[in-house]
Automatic annotation (TrEMBL):
It comes from Fulvivirga imtechensis AK7. Transmembrane segments: none annotated. Signal peptide: none annotated. Residues 58-137 form the Alkyl hydroperoxide reductase subunit C/ Thiol specific antioxidant domain. This is Alkyl hydroperoxide reductase subunit C/ Thiol specific antioxidant domain-containing protein. GO terms for molecular function: antioxidant activity; oxidoreductase activity. SUPFAM superfamilies: Thioredoxin-like.
Amino acid sequence: MKKKAILTLAFLLLLTIGWVGFKGIRRLNKKAAIEKKQGDLSLMLNQINQADTDITPTTILIFFNSECEHCQEEIKEVSKNIGELKKYQLFLISYEPENEALAFLSRYNLSNFYLKSSPEKVISAFEGSVPQTLIYKKGKLIQHFKGEVKIETILDLL
């Protein structure tokens, strides 16, 4: 009887270890696929339905949510420095309904930089929380910030 209980526990332990390992590998593969897409601007824009966009200029993608305090602060700083940022291709992307995202951006006079896409496509292109800022030069990712980033840091990279 004792032997049967030990074998059952060993089997359950191995099953649990296998399941955890499988889930971990699956999560890593998903993350690697997203990072590969994010590394190439044309793949990224294709993912969010903007394949016809010119990828040669320096491009800034900011993934935001209007209810996020860090996003609000970053968008406010972008608005204050829009004169400097207009030299570059700037896209502001959200998974929120379009009317909510545009209402938020219009408060900062940034609605012209909104990049329309479906929530599903945006969520599949960005892994993790908001805000996220991706900077591309000649179509290749040079920097990916997860979380709020100071505008000076962005400008220094451009």
